Amino acid sequence: MNDTQLLRYGRHILLDEIGIEGQQRLLEGTVLIIGLGGLGSPAALYLAASGVGKLILCDHDTVDLSNLQRQIAHHTASIGHYKVHSAAQSLHALNPEVECVTIAERADIAGLEALIAQADVVLDCSDNFTARYAINRACRQLGKPLVSGAAIQFSGQVTVFDFRQPDAPCYNCLYPEDSEAETLRCATTGVFAPLVGIIGTVQAAETLKLLIGLPDGLRGKLLTVNALSMQPRTLNLHRDPACAVCAH
Fold first, then answer.
1. The domain at 3-166+179-219 falls in which architecture?
2. Taking the C-alpha atoms of 106, 153, 240 and 111 in order, what is their torsion angle to the nearest 10 degrees?
3. How far is it, in rounded angstroms, from Cα 93 to Cα 114?
């Protein structure tokens, strides 16, 4: 770590739980962020600011004017550009040391596994169940920790599925794929702008802790936040013995 890095990351290094060794782990880490919208934007910004060495950004979408109410990695001048390219510019402006790999396409099953195999931690910042189930399956198969977030209206949630642990539950344990879970979308139901910042920032915090090797966190727990009452709740999650993904 050079003198510039010691200065840039000094407030991390002062923390006994991180120190130089923990910061070095961040510098050597690789994180895959799937979705560079409301959740992925704050998560990516904090991961870049914290010095995560390599960020793989995956999103097929382009920036729209309606995104700018909450997707803080993008700017008015980014409208019409791919979100991954817009986000990479913001991240490089914040911390030019961070390597950004941009994948401006929808992650299909085959491509998803190849991307996940490169990462130390995966962030699911997507906005649909199809992607979440595919990401969950691939992360479990490859044994990669998955930090999952979601936010709609005034309600958000974050959980960590640490598939390095043999008894870890998975996303399908929480929301079975064959259930009739209702899909709500921001375009039709709305979302409170700061809520996605809260959830995305918690995702970044959990990712940093996983990279550093800090204990506890949200492994096997579900944190829910209501931005109206500001009443967080934490629930314990357990593997579903009938889960079609991990119960075998």
1. 3-Layer(aba) Sandwich (3.40)
2. 10
3. 28
Strands 99-103 and 54-58: parallel
Q: Work out the average pLDDT over 70-76.
A: 97
Residue 186 a catalytic site member: yes
Q: Is the pLDDT of residue 49 over 70?
A: yes
Q: Which entry of 58, 100, 125, 186 is annotated as an active-site residue?
A: 186
Check: CB of residue 28 under 8 Å from CB of residue 53.
yes
The answer to whether the CB of 33 falls within 8 A of the CB of 56 is yes
**CA distances for 134 relative to 20, 108, 124, 146, 245, angstroms:** 36, 8, 10, 12, 11
Helix (H, G, I), strand (E, B) or coil at 38: coil
Is the model's pLDDT at 188 over the cut of 80?
no
Residue 176, classed as helix, strand or coil, is coil
Strand order in the sheet with 155-161: 99-103, 54-58, 30-34, 121-124, 146-152, 155-161, 221-226, 233-236
